[in-house]
Design goal:
Strand order of the largest sheet: 14-13-12-11-7-10-9-8-15
CATH topology of the largest domain: Dihydrodipicolinate Reductase, domain 2
Number of helices: 14
CATH architecture of the largest domain: 2-Layer Sandwich
Helix content: 25-40%
Number of domains: 2
Bound molecules: 6-O-phosphono-beta-D-glucopyranose
Distance between the termini: 27 Å
Oligomer: single chain
Radius of gyration: 24 Å
CATH superfamily of the largest domain: Dihydrodipicolinate Reductase, domain 2
Number of strands: 15
CATH class of the largest domain: Alpha Beta
Largest sheet: 9 strands, mixed
Amino acid sequence: MVSRVIPVETFDLVIFGGTGDLARRKILPGLFRRFCAEQMGGDSRIVGAARSEMDRDAYRSFAREAIAEFDPDAAGHETHLETFLDRLDYVTIDARGETGWEDLAALVRPEVIRAFYFSVAPSLFGDLAERLHRHGMDCDNCRVVVEKPFGRDLESARALNRTIATYFDEHQIYRIDHYLGKETVQNLMAIRFGNMLFEPLWNSQYVDHIQITVAEEVGVGGRGEYYDRAGAMRDMMQNHMMQLLCLIAMEPPAKFEPDAVRDEKLKVIRALDHVPSTDIVRGQYEGSGDCPGYRHQVGNRDSNTESFVALRAHISNWRWAGTPFYLRTGKRLRERASEIAIVFKDAPHSIFGAEAGRHRNILTIRLQPNEGIELGVTIKEPGPGGMRLIDVPLDMSFAEALGPEDADFPDAYERLIMDVIRGNQTLFMRGDEVEAAWAWADPIIAAWEREEAQPLPYAAGSAGPDDALMLMHRDGRRWREVKA
Ligand code: BG6
């Protein structure tokens, strides 16, 4: 298989927060990889903009170090690196003052695509947008890219949408949910809408329930201050998990086009029922051995923030009425493993009698790591002695099926930044989608705050609190053991 890389048009990309963590870990290394793949066309340029006093050479050194640290293949691309670094510039800028704005306006070229990446605290979005406008940089071929968290509730998300909308049209706003940039997440759409096999069965008549698990091995690390104000519900459930749910549950869009896809996702979010507190389990990890517990890591001994959440969701529409969706995500779990399992119903009648046992097909889509698909199929257990049935997996690892070169998936940010330049919003969240997701999450969070709910402790390295198991057991179901 030959991968087709189509160079994008010439652009100037300004990274506000150019010396920040995201620029260092994801944006600069991602752009470098796209450059090596010859996708960064023409004489495109990248301008770091931040408060730190530094000149162009110092920024280039910063980028060189970031790439060496976060791009595992950088060592093999020394010559590319020098040419790439030549494309970098830097402006010291004050988001709330006047410093640097004239310099920036002189640097970005009016005749090429301009993208402004707001990799800063959301409280600065309005200041940046207003100054871009005031200094004449908000022309029609420009885009703004905004990172999560996009608000912390419906009201703040609405306020952010309104602020940005004062200066930019919706078609210029790219709200990032990096899960949508993951190859395997996009594959959910390819699997559903590229095959005839699954779609006729993709409804409550055939599907018993769906499980979505995003498990992380890491804890909150150095992000304790942010995380303790967010928790798993705001950090993962309202956005990444919600997007996965939408892609699994939505109706087929007529076209793979931004509004067609986003309209269908929005309908799913709006059809979600309120989740009562009896259908939710919150957890917080405890320390074990050398691993500090959550409260220690965030420096808040009384914290009631959850680092784990599991819930049962219902979508009230014709396709899904009666099929529960079980979602769980957490930090400091046994291992980093994310998957979606579509658990089909039992055959309506077993011709093999009770002794053949109960069997059901499960379609599992492994999102990370070891990306792939597995379909559990029931067959006859070999050998004499009657008809006994067993379930065996039809297992396809993408790496094995595609070969190492084609299964070398680009990082989500690489794909998304190139989509910004291409002007393709399909994998970005529309304002109304974000607001609808908050409208669903808000009452859940409000109930916790009202009741001063305490998260249940769970041991680091476990599968989360036992009550999360009970959430399914009481329905006569169980979580699949998710393995890396
Ligand atoms: C981020 C969250 O959006 O996603 C983090 O803020 C989380 O807390 C991360 O660790 C998970 O992303 P990935 O790509 O590692 O699954």
